[in-house]
Amino acid sequence: VTGSIASTSDTAGGTERQPKDFSKLASNKYECDQINFDFYIRYKTLDLWARYQDFQLRVRNAIIKRQSLDLIMAGFNGVRRAETSDRSSNPMLQDVAVGWLQKYRNEAPARVMSKVTDEEGHTTSEVIRVGKGGDYASLDALVMDATNNLIEPWYQEDPDLVVIVGRQLLADKYFPIVNKEQDNSEMLAADVIISQKRIGNLPAVRVPYFPADAMLITKLENLSIYYMDDSHRRVIEENPKLDRVENYESMNIDYVVEDYAAGCLVEKIKVGDFSTLAKATAEPGA
Fold first, then answer.
1. Would you tell me the crossing angle of helices 167-178 and 139-150 to the nearest 10 degrees?
2. Domains in the chain: how many in total?
3. Rounded-to-integer distance, Cα 159 and Cα 270, Å
4. Is 2 a member of any domain?
5. What are the boundaries of the region Disordered (predicted)?
6. Helix or strand or coil: residue 52?
7. How many whole angstroms from its chain centre is CA 102?
8. Is residue 183 within 8 Å of residue 140, measured between CB atoms?
9. Sign of the C-alpha dihedral, residues 54, 55, 57, 58?
10. Residue 13 maps to a domain
11. pLDDT for the residue numbered 4
């Protein structure tokens, strides 16, 4: 549902009620491209595990898990789709597909915060400094500001909004709480705070492979992976010349943001103490 649907109409005065198309979406095109999930198992490995009756099940589960993790990795790190990807140069699968974060950069740049500007639009900082003397005093303040200014009003109060972050930003927020001696009552309070995992009064969701200096504020259901029907193909071949069994598997997919208005991306976040730098900048002749 994109926006509110409540309204009033003076039907006694002849004004007809005007229903709203609650499912109306902006035209966002998508194109499912092929992604390969190819691997091999050497004869030696097969022989080693052959005595386990559930070996085939273990291999299947391991591959499904790896495929899912790779889809997450490309979704949060992919910036382009190369004709032939290079894993050594792009270990986070940056060249496998255009992921959700890059879709925001390409399709909704007004909802991406990556620097700080003044009221005239001049850049005052190429990064978003969080901490003493920075642009924001805390990550909570940054999330609140981004939510208030980059997300449409009818989504700002949505109970499903979350902050998607990586491990590092969560550590930056909670490490100072636990990195000190505490009595039992303070330790219990710290445990409660950490267990809640909230940033800017929104639930914090940690996902694997998310960029360390970024956060995505949106609903989890707003991020989709589209699969083309009947595009999943798999061929298993035995290659005795190299003493291995090869698995060739592919599917056509695309990463889709359902509604850009329901989220925003904040990146290039730097957490630290900037008070010395701020003081030096403020001093005449500095």
1. 140
2. 1
3. 28
4. no
5. 1-20
6. coil
7. 10
8. no
9. positive
10. no
11. 67
Rg (CA), the chain: 24
Cα separation, 151 vs 260, in Å, equals 9
pLDDT tens per residue, range 161-199? 999 999 889 888 776 665 556 555 555 554 555 556 889
Can you tell me which residue has the tokens 């499904």? 64
pLDDT in tens, 236-262: 999 999 999 999 999 999 999 999 999
251 and 233 in contact (C-beta within 8 Å)?
A: yes
Poorest-pLDDT segment among 22-31, 42-51, 85-94, 185-194: 185-194
Q: How far apart are CA 132 and CA 129, in angstroms?
A: 9
Q: Tell me which of 182 and 226 has the higher pLDDT.
A: 226
d(CA 163, CA 263): 10
Share of the chain above pLDDT 70, in %: 85
Query: In terms of C-beta density within 10 A (0-12 exposed, 13-18 middle, 19 or more buried), how is residue 103 classed?
Result: buried
Strand-strand pairing, 128-130 and 269-271: parallel
Residue found by looking up tokens 């190429």 in the block: 126
- Residue 256's identity, in one-letter code, is V
How do 161-165 and 202-206 pair as beta strands? parallel
β-bridge partners, 253: 33, 227
Full residue range of the structural domain in which residue 251 is found: 28-282
**Predicted local confidence at residue 182, as pLDDT:** 59
- The answer to the question of residue 8 being in a domain is no
In a domain, 240, yes or no: yes
Backbone angles phi, psi at 235, to 5 degrees: -135, 130
Residue 104 belongs to what H/E stretch? helix 100-107
